[in-house]
Structure formats: C-alpha cells, structure tokens
What does this fold into?
Amino acid sequence: MHICFIIAMEAEAASLIEKFSLDEVTHFASGLPMWAWSGLQGADQISVVVNGKDADYNLDLIGTQAATLSTHLAINHFKPDMIISAGTAGAFQSKGANIGDVYLSYPHVVFHDRRVDIPGWDKMGVGRFPVYDVREMALTLKLKTGVVTTGNSLDMPETDEATIRAIGGEIKEMEAAAVAWVASLHKVPMFCVKSVTDLVDSAHPTHEQFLSNLRLAVESLTEVCLKVVGYILVHKP
Ligand code: SAH
It folds into this structure.
C-alpha cells in the first residue's frame, strides 16, 4: 500500500524524510512551491509532501490554502491508499495535554473559524470530516485521540476558543480540515498525527512556546509517525 504524509513545515518533515530514507521526487509540482519525497519500504511505498516556501517571504507556507493544494497534488501524483496530516499543534492543559504529547485524530476533524450564522451554512462551516478509525492503533501505540480543529491563525481569540470548546476540540492547528476535505473528495482514507508544541490555555504566548518546543515536538512526532506506519503496514486496512 501507499501511505502519504502531508506536512506544512520543512522542520516538521525533515527527520521523517531522513528516517524513511526517502528520495526527492523530481517534477512533482513544477512551478509550484510544493515538494515531495518518496521511497519503498519493502513492497509498500511511503511519501511525504511538504507545502514549500512562500516566494516573497521565504517562510513555510502554513494554513489551509497550501494544505488544500498539497493534498490535491499528492493524491493526483501518488494515488495513495492513506493520507496522514502530520505536524505540530496546540492543545489544552485543562484537558490534560502536555508539550510533546502526540494525538491521533478521532472521531472527526473540523474548522473552528468559519462562522456563518445561517442554518445549514453554520454546519457546513464547521465541516466535521470523519477520519479513519484509529482507536485500535491508539490503544496499541498508547496515544491520545481527540477532535482536531483547524483555523488560519496561530492565536486563539475568544470567539474561536468558544467554538473549539463547544465542538469538544482537543487539538488546534492550521491544516488538518483542509487535508481531510480534499481526501474526502477523492475518497482516500485520512487521519492526523499531531504533536503538541504549545498549550493554548497557558499564560505563555503561543508563538514563544512554539519556538522553544518545536524541536522536542518534532522528535516525538517523527517517532510516532514511524510507529504509525509500522502499525498500518501490519494491520492493512
Ligand atoms: N511561527 C512559527 C510558524 C507558524 S506556527 C515559526 O516561527 O516557525 C503554525 C504552524 O504550527 C501551523 O502549521 C500549525 O498547523 C501548527 N501549530 C502549532 N501550534 C498551533 C496553535 N496553537 N494554533 C494553530 N496552529 C498551530
């Protein structure tokens, strides 16, 4: 089978690419910022697609537009059997999260900042994209599970916090729901692996926590992604 990771930032992807000894795919998205790496693990294939850099700022393209494009390109190019949105995220210390904890998404991925207060449109804004059933995997690998919520900002204004709490969101990040939407259009099973860089309900500013905890969170992200691939390849869906 073919498992494809969609990752926003180079720093989140680099050690995974190295651990799987993946090769860069030439002609993946010529003219576009996205990059891909791929390689065989026995009879199976692992790929990593990274959003790439903004041409004006030379910074990683984070957020939902880039994630949408990456996922569509990845599915067109690789025709994967499974998509994994992997990366860093914020979480709630009030719900027991710690820096470096890794969560699997379950039972769905939602948007927390698409407010349209009209019946029907309100539900479509939130999304509620179902994800691959990771419950057995989470038990076996001793990982937490939770609702992953996506928006296009790193901060958490009160209105977003109220939405996240009402939805029961445990993990806050900027790409997963976009990846889930594209995967659902193509009917490719999808779930998330998210490592906590920051506690969104702590007194410390999120961006400071993000920078000081990035290395630790990426180490645990990489370790868990390797275990997740091992698990999926043994228990093929
Ligand atoms: N400011 C960082 C880069 C952006 S952080 C830097 O200087 O390097 C935002 C990225 O991390 C996004 O890809 C998002 O998915 C994830 N992320 C981590 N913590 C987050 C949080 N609390 N809220 C939203 N996104 C978060």
Notes: Residues 8-9, 62, 87-90, 154, 172-175, 197-198, 200, 206-207, 210-211 surround S-adenosyl-L-homocysteine (CB under 6 Å). The helical segments are 10-19, 64-78, 121-126, 135-141, 158-167, 176-185, 206-234. The longest strand covers residues 82-91.
